[in-house]
Amino acid sequence: MTVLVVLSSSVLAWVIWTLISLLSNYLTARRIGLPIIISPVSSLNPYWILTYRALPILPLLQSLPFNLGKWSRCTYMGWSFDDKYLLHKELGSAFTLVTPSVNEVWIADSDAAYVVLSRRKDYIKPAKMYQPLAIFGPNVNTVEGDDWQRHRKLTAPSFNEKTSTSVWDEALRQAGDMLHSWMERSTNGTRDTVAHTATLALHVLTGAGFGISYSYGKGVQTPPEGHDISYRDALLTVLQSVVLLSTVPRSWMTFRFSPAKLRKVDQATKEFQLYMAEMLINERSQIHKRSSQSRNLLTALVRASEEAKESSHEISHQGLTDDEIFGNIFIYNLAGYETTANTIATGIFLLAAYPEWQEWVAEEINLVFDEEEDSPGGRYEEAFPKLRRCLAVMFEILRLHGSNVYIPRTTGSVDSALHINGKNYIIPSGTFTMTNLQALHTDPRSWGLDSLVWRPSRWLVSTPDTVASGYTKELIEPIKGTFLPWADGPRVCPGRKVAQVEFVAVMVALFRKHRVQPVLMEGESADAGKERLRDIVNDSGLSAVTMQMRCPRAAALMWRRVE
Ligand code: HEM
Ligand SMILES: *[C@@H]1O[C@H](CO)[C@@H](O)[C@H](O)[C@H]1NC(C)=O
Ligand SMILES: *[C@@H]1O[C@H](CO)[C@@H](O)[C@H](O)[C@H]1NC(C)=O
């Protein structure tokens, strides 16, 4: 009886609290003056996330009469991937989502989006949301304000042309081996495109990023002296356990009776930490011996930090602490792994579904490397700028199937003015602004009536120069705020060039002499096979960190050589 009383009174208290918060947030939202959607839950509420993931409650809510469940259309993770620009078409280029915890202003106006991403002090990257990613130490992705400026300045040198050169060569090598393994599968094809491109992306990071090269076909990886698992395996386990590592306390993992999986994660975390510490010691001694070293993400990071400590007049003079160096090594790996791997895997599915675009990139690749014995290895600087179709394919993947569908910012403790669609609005303190990438990337006003069609050639235009030189065209420069897969402004993704170089190198290795197609099911026509691939790509959702295909193993892909 008392249990029932306690239970029902706490439910009542919760309901009352929700109503009061909603009312207060609603009154604040009214003052903004944008269209309003009221939701009884916040999109980041973990109970809500568990509920709709476990139960088919979303379609149910959306079929309620009088639009009672309309809020559920924009309160689940990754909703804008499904919705594209439709909700904005209904409500306008911005609207306010009122929830019991915060108000979210969703923005699909390109000018306003660009302003929000450019004014980092007015529209702050919500450090709290990214805090779980500081597993090994604070890093450029998790800090804010002056700290961020110091991190950004000291991490920027990591992303230079020498890094790009090694990314190019390593990606070519890995992709060549990956293709070889796929060819061995012959007409059976492979269902592991996603897993394999993830291995490739991981190896590009360990090799070009940190100077530890692995061969693609894994085999036995003997760990070096003092280690029980290889660097690669430690890193992979850590990357695959980010959610676990940021929610489960470390002490639970070391506990003797903890599940084996937890102990494995704990071991990998310790090993990874140890590897990073060794790399750091090694790197510092190289610097002090002034020995010339090949440059990679790590060397550049440590060097910039040590040099900063010697100079004394800048904001960055404190350099980075060891923990901050570890934090940044980890974030390079985390930020550069799934994102790039997804882009490559989704691209392969799309190219298999639309084979005409394979011919299109192959034509370019064979123009750049025209002789049979022309090896693309070592030719980053000269070849990369010419491979515009390859880059256009990447942009077109990211436009419709990017890793992020929105970018969160918050106004912090002060109000901020924002011009949206020709009108001025005051965005109150404590409001989240959500830049709706998916809506911006599919808006027919920016991308034409076929904005939902996957058409890489939309990225290329002829100019008088290119007409004179034959068939090559220039890449278009999209209007500011209409294409933001890497965000924009001061906190734009520093790894975008790395990702581009890696992607283009993989295209060269795969499509120079090979083509991909779906393995057809019994009685399936070629068109139906391609349609099936499109459905698989369309069936994507937000995993823990990025947008991904939900069932990539539902289709086998088969590679063949062409002459
Ligand atoms: C196709 C691949 C990639 C995509 C789509 C992508 C996307 C993004 C986006 C949208 C942001 C901004 C997030 C925000 O401000 O809320 C970001 C930040 C970041 N990315 Fe990437 N990224 C990619 C590849 C990479 C690679 C390869 C690296 C490193 C090797 C990297 C390192 C970072 C870092 C360190 C940040 C944080 C920067 C800061 O907050 O100042 N990314 N990325
Ligand atoms: C293809 O699959 C069949 C049946 O599972 C198997 O017997 C055959 O060895 C496979 N071929 C290749 C090249 O893997
Ligand atoms: C994509 O999937 C959504 C459901 O997730 C569906 O409503 C839509 O019709 C699909 N689009 C295509 C082109 O298949």
From TrEMBL:
Q: Which domain of life is it from?
A: Eukaryota
Question: What's an example of a GO molecular-function annotation for this chain?
Answer: iron ion binding
Keyword terms, alphabetized: Heme, Iron, Metal-binding
According to its UniProt record, which cofactors does this protein need?
A: heme
Asked if ATP-binding is a keyword of the record, the answer is no
Sites where the protein binds heme: C493
Pfam families xrefs = p450
Regarding protein family, the annotation reads: Belongs to the cytochrome P450 family.
Q: What is this protein called?
A: Cytochrome P450 monooxygenase
Give the organism, scientific name.
Endocarpon pusillum (strain Z07020 / HMAS-L-300199) (Lichen-forming fungus)
